[in-house]
Amino acid sequence: MSRHVPKKRELPSPDPVYNSRLISMLSTKIIIGGKKRLAQRIIYDALNLIGEKTGQEPLQIFEDAVKKVTPLIEVKAKRVGGSTCQVPIEVRAFRGTYLALKWITKFSRERPGKKMATKLANEIIDSSNELGNSIKRKEETHKMAEANKAFAHYNFQKL
């Protein structure tokens, strides 16, 4: 019998202003060089900009954007015989939000402009309106899984 005990995933503590775990997860994605306060300030500035531009509750728009960007299916490479197959698998909830936040931060960094807060705000607004590069990435992932549906019978039990 294995002595390996599965590690329990610790949820991040909620952020101090909005009391949201999702925002604290986003701040860990934005962190550069260990400066968490700077990452939080960028997020709070972006949420203020979202509130000014849309006139709605910024936290609600952010949560809506993350829901719309979260993928349901992704592909993983599995070696079968001598070839490597792209096997579509379902995405668990935590990994889905992780991927959504990763894509939002990645594509907001790639946007043109100077301030990260404005770039992040624009990416979140575009994602909530089902536009932007992070939505395109989700659709690409789903198309890739749909194209490789033939390999779905190779199950991934031990991942």
TrEMBL record:
One of its GO terms (biological process) is translation. Signal peptide: none annotated. Keywords: Plastid, Ribonucleoprotein, Ribosomal protein, RNA-binding, rRNA-binding. GO terms for molecular function: rRNA binding; structural constituent of ribosome. It holds the Pfam family Ribosomal_S7. Gene3D superfamilies: Ribosomal protein S7 domain. This is Ribosomal protein S7. The gene is rps7.
